[in-house]
Design goal:
By secondary structure, the chain is mainly alpha-helical. The protein folds into two domains: 63 residues, Helicase, Ruva Protein, domain 3, CATH 1.10.8; 35 residues, Irregular (30s ribosomal protein s13, domain 2). 45% of the residues lie in helices and 5% in strands. It has six helices and two strands, in the order E-E-H-H-H-H-H-H. The protein has a two-stranded antiparallel sheet with strand order 1-2. A hairpin with a 2-residue loop joins strand 1 and strand 2. Helix 4 packs across helix 5. The longest helix has 17 residues.
């Protein structure tokens, strides 16, 4: 397995589909990276030689914020929103949707309101009589 940006990417997939396994890189960014580094997107990860892997690793480290750095930045942004007591920060703190979605009917899982359908109401007896 090739290891790029602290993530093992799968060997048997095309490199274009393998790069999105890195947090912060999607399919569009993956295609952009491969175009800039002039690596064939149809190649399998296992078919890449060490030079190509190093080129990819260096390009991603220089040009993109991925994995730990990106996660840290996101957490700091959320912490900043909570510290300044903004509306979005309070929604983050309560674990509710932050982008204006309705909460009366949807977002049950976010609110922790999982409704379980009721059975017939009759308990099964433990032993035969």
């Amino acid at each position: 397995m090739a290891r790029i940006a602290g993530t093992n990417i799968p060997d048997n997939k095309r490199i274009e589909a393998s790069l999105p396994y890195i947090f912060g890189i999607g399919l569009t960014k993956s295609r952009e990276i491969l175009k800039q580094t002039k690596i064939d997107p149809e190649k399998r990860t296992k078919d890449l030689n060490q030079d190509e892997i190093n080129i990819l690793r260096n390009y991603i480290e220089k040009n993109f914020k991925v994995e730990g750095d990106l996660k840290r930045e996101i957490l700091l942004n959320i912490k900043r929103l909570k510290d300044i007591k903004s509306y979005r920060g309070s929604r983050h703190a309560k674990g509710l949707p932050t982008r204006g979605q309705r909460t009366k009917t949807n977002s049950r899982t976010v609110r922790g309101n999982k409704r379980v359908s009721a059975g017939s109401g009759r308990k099964v007896s433990a032993q035969k009589t």
